[in-house]
Amino acid sequence: MKSITIKGSERESVGKVSTKALRNAGAVPCVLYGGDQPVHFSAEEAAFKHLVYTPNAHTVVIELGNGKSYNAVLQDIQVHPVSDKILHIDFYELFDNKEVTMEVPVRITGTSPGVLLGGVLRLNQRKLKVKALPKNLPDFLDADISGMEMGNKMYVTKLVSDKFKLLHPDNTVVAQVRISRAAMKAAQEAAKAAKAPAKGKKK
């Protein structure tokens, strides 16, 4: 999985006053969990744009100066409900021998015969929760729709791998090819035409 580097500074004070001062200065207060002790730090809000405002999943290298560096993943983010300003971010530290859980985007591959016949592809799950060792975290979960006919559904069991676990019930629908209104109308009209007697034919 691709990695993004975030450069920040450790926080000595974590009270409300210092937190407010950080935000007013354009910085985001953060906490790194998963190690022996939580690590409180801050970084400029602009440093998170390639991590937060993207559909892709990334791991993070947090550099805090003085030689301190941590590998991590984003766990939770708090955003202001009106301004969309980032208020706080939680990270979880990665260890080579310890599995971690994160959301990975689903990527559609192939061409569905059902879509070519007029069906509509619906992606029910844009991201799925994956549990794996850091080295086995995938950038995407590829959903191959090349065998999907109109009306078919793809379940999460089609995306299983020996390298990671998918934390969803087996009946979770990832994608489906729905019958469009136009295709349904055409099928109804074709059925009516097949039942109707041919013009000029004597009874």
UniProtKB/TrEMBL annotation:
SUPFAM superfamilies referenced in this protein's UniProt entry, alphabetically: Ribosomal protein L25-like
GO molecular function: 5S rRNA binding; structural constituent of ribosome
InterPro entries: Rbsml_bL25/Gln-tRNA_synth_N (IPR020056), Ribosomal_bL25/Gln-tRNA_synth (IPR011035), Ribosomal_bL25_b-dom (IPR020057), Ribosomal_bL25_C (IPR037121), Ribosomal_bL25_long (IPR001021), Ribosomal_L25_dom (IPR029751), Ribosomal_uL5_bac-type (IPR020930)
Example of a GO biological process term: translation
UniProt domain Large ribosomal subunit protein bL25 L25: residue ranges: 6-91
Gene Ontology CC, one term: cytosolic large ribosomal subunit
Ranges for domain Large ribosomal subunit protein bL25 beta: 99-179
Quaternary structure (record): Part of the 50S ribosomal subunit; part of the 5S rRNA/L5/L18/L25 subcomplex. Contacts the 5S rRNA. Binds to the 5S rRNA independently of L5 and L18.
Family of this protein: Belongs to the bacterial ribosomal protein bL25 family. CTC subfamily.
Name listed for the protein in its UniProt record: Large ribosomal subunit protein bL25
Organism of provenance: Flavobacterium humi
Chain's gene name: rplY
